[in-house]
Amino acid sequence: MLGRDFDDARTGERVTGSLARVAVELELPTEQVADAVLAAAAARRRLPFRWRSTAVQDGGRVA
Questions:
Q1: What is the CA radius of gyration of the chain?
Q2: What is the pTM of this model?
Q3: pLDDT score at 41
Q4: What SS3 state is found at 62?
């Protein structure tokens, strides 16, 4: 978050700072998830990462 829009915030909510996170979303077949996590774990990186696996039941695009 950046900025100082505190008009409707209570005292405990008045904080400033920046949150720098990156999210990568992959859609993979179930049988490829374990290999993808292993590849990410083996990649060179500075910090730990979080991951989750969620089943996608349906999808599409609405224009």
A1: 18
A2: 0.57
A3: 93
A4: coil
